[in-house]
Structure formats: structure tokens, C-alpha cells
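seq as requested:
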Amino acid sequence: MLQKQQLPFKVLVAPLDWGLGHATRCVPLIKTLKQAQCHVYVAGNPTALKLLKQEVTGVEYLPLDGYNIRYSSKRNMAWKILQQIPKIILTIYKEHRWLQNIVTTHHINLIFSDNRYGLYHKDATSIFITHQLRIKAPFGWLESVIQKINYRFINRFDACWVPDYKGTLNIAGILSHPEQLPAIPVKYIGPLSRLEALNVQVSIPYKWLILLSGPEPQRSMLEDLLMQVINTVQYPVLLVRGLPLESTELAVPPHCKVINHVPAKDLQLLFAQSEYIISRSGYTTVMEILALQKKSILIPTPGQTEQEYLASHLMQQHWCYSFEQHEDAVKHLQQAQSFAFQLPQLPGNSLQCAVDGVLQ
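C-alpha cells:
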């Protein structure tokens, strides 16, 4: 473990590149480490680093190639990802070699890897962050095989932190609470959200706040679908495209406003000013929606079993309304307005205590 004479601790934080969710949920971790006077390095691809530079200052940024997973335009997502396993394994090998040099040249003491399996090191405390201890798959036997492979990688780290609550009151269900846990210590730190509810009352000018995110081509496919719906209503709508590197404008009707990307300090206000949040059921987005106590309409990425399970699990608890992308969006968006939402009063996270524990 870390030695006191190594202060200030030099810490590496590296999020996965599947969408922006892994990067955004690392924001509270990075800020907590900064408050503890750590020297923080953040590694990622250009899209993730541009987002994080808007959220956090006073850290050093390092370029690190992502896994660059391509999602299918159809529902055969599991097969599409299975085809990319050789590329994933090669990326894990490359990032592990990259880390050997980084630990030596920057004297890294502590590593936080958000779902990047190659970022562990024998000379630095290495912590793996994930909410998917059980990875959903189309078949039960395949889930068991994947879990064994998943744990084989996770067990190379010193500890695993799960951004969810321990016990029955939780967000991710069986994803974060499987029957069998990894062999290394597992700590439930509560959900991670860079957003906090405003303490003041604000007006609600928008009926819908649409948050787009995730890999292509599915991000654009959902954007095209919702643009068709927007053209059929007169509600005031705000569309955040989730494209921090984009500069072109999207043609929309007068009752719709479009922003390519919004930093957290502005997104908090937009959440408060909107009646419903429409988004994918990515775990980070769900954590932020629940943290702000907002009614949400979740549309899982087709074929992405984790999002499909999560949306179904939350709708059963009446924490959200959900429908699938191939269904009638106009009908479901109308039905959502009469849905009996039961938003939970969830406790805060224990991130500060977890960070203090590992630093001490």
C-alpha cells in the first residue's frame, strides 16, 4: 500500500472511452483527490480529455488511446462486440505496457482505472472502478463465462470500487450485486455524480431535456429518431448532443434549442429547468438523474444488454419510464406523462471516506 513518505501522492485516473459516462463520473473522484492535495494525472482519448478539461483544472492530462469499440446499427450488439475481442485484448496489452513507462517517468503511487483492464501495476496501488461485476449477455451460460473472464482481469488489481449502494436499496441490481464477488476487496462507494441539486427554485421553461451520448452509430440514430418526434410537437425542447468536439449547428424547429455539449456547472441548471429528462440508460446518466431527483424517460441502446437490463430494473421500481428504440416513440412519450414516478430519496456516497482510507 501507499507509504506516508511518498506525499504528495501522485495519482493516475483513467476512464474508459465507451461514450462520455466513464469520464464524467470520474470528475468527483478527481476533485476529491485534488482536495486531498494529490498530484493528479488524467489519461484518456481526445474526446474524454476535452470534456474533463472543461470540468477540472489543476491536473495534468496524458493522451491514452481508447478501446474504440464500434456499436452495431442493428440489435446484434453481443455478436458485434464478440468480433472485437481480439482488438480489446490487444488494447489491454498496449495500455498495460504504456502504464509501465508512465509509472516510472511520473512516479505514480496510486492508479484509478475506470473499466480499463490493463491499468494495474505491481509498484502502485491499483484500484478498478466498475458497476458491472456481472456483465449481462443474451444467454445465461455466456454470462457465466464472461464473469469468469471479467474477474480474471479485475483480480489483478488491489481493490475494486463499485459506484452503487451496498444492500437491497441499489441502482444497478444484479449488475453490481452478483452472487459471487471478485477475490480482491470490494468497496461500495455509492453513486458518483458531478451534479448536485440546486438550493433555489427555478422556472421550468423546457418540457424535455434530451441528453444524447454513447458510441456511434447509435447516438446519431437516436438523434434522428427524436428529431422526428420534435417536429410533431410544440413543447419547448432542449437537445444536448453530447459532442464536445463538434462545432457545426443542427437545423431544428423554433421550439427546439440545440447545444453540442454542456459543462456540469451549466447542466445542473438545465436539469432544474426541465420537466423530463430523455436519455440513454447509461449508468452515469442514471446516477446524475437520480441525484437531481428528476423524472426521466430512458431509451436503452439497442442490443446493449446492460442498458436494457438497467432501464427495465429501474422502471419496475418506478424510478423511471422506459421504452425501446424500435417502439412508437410518440406514443411512449405521451404515456410517460401519466406514469406514476416514485423517485427515491437516496443517501449520499462515501467517496471521501474511501479516498481518505486508501491515502492513509
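Residues 4 and 360 are 7 Å apart (CA to CA).
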